[in-house]
Amino acid sequence: MASSRTALVLFFFASMLGAVALRGADFGTVPWALSRASGLAAFAVLTASMVMGLLISTKAGDGILSRPFVFDMHQFLSVASLALIAVHVGSLLFDRLFGFTSLSVLVPFLYPHEPLAMSAGIIAAWLTAITTASFWVRSRIGQKRWRTLHYLTFLAYLGGLGHGIFAGSDTELPFVYWGYVFSAAAVTALTALRITGYRQAQVRKAPRPSPTPGGMERGAA
Amino acid sequence: MAAPRYQSARFAIAGVLAASVIAGTVYFAEAAIPPGTGAAEGSTSATIQGTPGQAAPQATTARRSRSS
User: Fold this and answer.
1) Average pLDDT taken over every residue of chain A
2) Which residue of B has its CA nearest to A94?
């Protein structure tokens, strides 16, 4: 376990060194193409992760998929989306046309082009990082705090969707456009199911008023 | 250390994702190069940076279309 952690840390620093060494190299259109491809893949995986998470909380997947499998995939897809976001952001640093800097891809509102949509993407990436990291501190922060923190995923999803639609260069491509529509429809439908299910559970939990003649008045007040 | 559950599913997803990103990169990189401009020989970034030539306006337009 310790050796794999050391290997990961070494790999991270080697990647950083490699990136710095290659920063001045000219890769033509490849970084921009890689950024577009990884950005779209990151959004698709984020959607899949959201769907898995909502399948757990709504219990809509029960009977079709096993709960441990759905939870495992939810967690794995969160990490995968974060990795793809890292590729999406990192490859922009090698693009010569748009002039991204290390700071402008990490800090919102620094990049002048489409500042709102770009910042939505940056904030969404940070929120995805925070919620993904929270899987590993769940026992430390407690279930209630973890659940509250996990609601940030909805903001991350909305930020990612807005970023893709308004800052992305490929929204006009049919498969991208319909991908956004399908993603938004799936997440909205499951979120609606989640909210209605939660309300129904709250109603079931609430104590019923006693069927006394005064019950109506108390209920009305 | 015990092997994580659903290892094969994870590998399959990771493989599909890697293949998709590579395919997407090739697709977008080829789409950015206008045919018959000579840009395919590796001069795309030079044309984007403003080196005189016919490919420059087309390549720049293709890549700058992000906000449209």
Assistant:
1) 86
2) B45
Residue A66 has pLDDT above 80, yes or no: yes
Instruction: Give DSSP secondary structure letters for chain B.
Output: -PPPTTHHHHHHHHHHHHHHHHHHHHHHHHHTS-TTSSGGGTTHHHHHTT-SSTHHHHHHHHHHGGG-
Q: Does B45 touch chain A if contact means CB atoms closer than 8 Å?
A: yes
Whole-model pTM?
A: 0.75
Distance from CA of A27 to the nearest CA of B (A): 8
Identify the closest residue of chain B to A69 by CA–CA distance: B6
- Return the CATH number at A148: 1.20.120
Domain for residue A143, yes or no? yes
Examine the pLDDT at A89 and tell me if it is beyond 90. yes
Q: Which of A64-78, A164-178, B45-59 has the lowest mean pLDDT?
A: B45-59
- The domain of B20 spans 7-67
Q: Can you give the pLDDT at residue B39?
A: 45
Q: Which of B5, B41, B66 to mutate to test the interface with A (most CBs of A within 10 A)?
A: B66
Q: In this structure, is residue A3 part of a structural domain?
A: no
State how many domains chain B has: 1
Q: Using a CB–CB cutoff of 8 Å, tell me whether B42 touches chain A.
A: yes
Note down the domain range covering A158. 29-204
The answer to whether residue A163 is domain-embedded is yes
